[in-house]
Amino acid sequence: MSSIARDPLGTDRVPVGPGLSMFDPMFVGIDEFGEAVFLDVVYRNLLAAGEPGGGKSGLLNLAAGTAALCDNTRLVLFDAKWVELGPWRHIADEFVGRDLDHAISVLRRLVTVADNRYQWLLAHERRKVNRYDDLSVIVTIIDELAMYSTVLGTKPQQEEFESLLRGLVSLGRACGMPVIAATQRPSWDIIPASLRDLFGFRAAFRCTSLNSSNIILGQGWAEQGYNAADISPTNQGAAYLLAEGGLPRRVKAAYLSDADIYAIADYAAWLRRPTTAAFDWGMAA
Ligand SMILES: Nc1ncnc2c1ncn2[C@@H]1O[C@H](COP(=O)(O)OP(=O)(O)OP(=O)(O)O)[C@@H](O)[C@H]1O
């Protein structure tokens, strides 16, 4: 399976609207040849990292917007700054702000759901869920990982957060629970290799050093020319995108303005409104 998928329709059309599924490739932007770039994010996870202002939140909002418009897809959001993912809070199952206890309890619940899904898979003699299962995709999006793992709360709480996150990131891939996370601190204490390597997709936005770029993409890529420190500070939204097993690819993420984000969030809330169709059609009795 191609890890950075082409448009399944064979054109440059971007699928939107009702009927869209998280099992469809997610549009993220264009590559240096102007080709549309899509990610099969549901069976992998996505990590975005780079210096402040590089465009990570833009990518996270793109993912949130896609998830918001997808059928049978639920959102769980962590945003210690409130405003980055805040526009989606009304349609999220959970929105976690600057509260590490809340973050831990939500992660515990997610890991329990993942465990239950594996029991379900075992009982059905399967190894992963697919679009035809009647299971929702639960997309967890975390903006600024470092706030939860190094800034808020106490050391034991931070360690518990990290270990639960590691559990979710490793379990979620096969059971329809992808994690999309961002950090502006690409350092080993925030993204140890053992956690980083659980993310099948990694996007290195502009970094301040070759070392930071390698921490995101993997040791040795910068020396081979894939160095996010070479991205111009004025080229926000540009990143090296690595899919496991592939070569990093230079991309420019699509960008949603604040007005776009709020408009999509409103539309998604309308799509997700509780339906009274059964009553409208006189079928309730
Ligand atoms: N894909 C993009 N195309 C064009 N401009 C972009 C793009 N992404 C981001 N920008 C510009 O860069 C600014 C900062 O982007 P963003 O908030 O996503 O960065 P960030 O890396 O998340 O920063 P921080 O770590 O401080 O949250 C945006 O306000 C926007 O003006």
TrEMBL record:
Superkingdom: Bacteria
Xref: InterPro entries: FtsK/SpoIIIE/SftA, FtsK_dom, P-loop_NTPase
Pfam families, per database record: FtsK_SpoIIIE
Boundaries of every FtsK domain copy: 34-214
Cross-referenced SUPFAM superfamilies: P-loop containing nucleoside triphosphate hydrolases
Gene Ontology molecular function terms on file: ATP binding; DNA binding
Family annotation (Gene3D superfamilies): P-loop containing nucleotide triphosphate hydrolases (3.40.50.300)
Keywords: ATP-binding, Nucleotide-binding
Keyword ATP-binding tagged: yes
Residues the record lists as binding ATP: 50-57
Residue runs in coiled coils: none
Record protein name field: FtsK domain-containing protein
Organism for this UniProt entry: Spirilliplanes yamanashiensis
Lineage: Bacteria, Bacillati, Actinomycetota, Actinomycetes, Micromonosporales
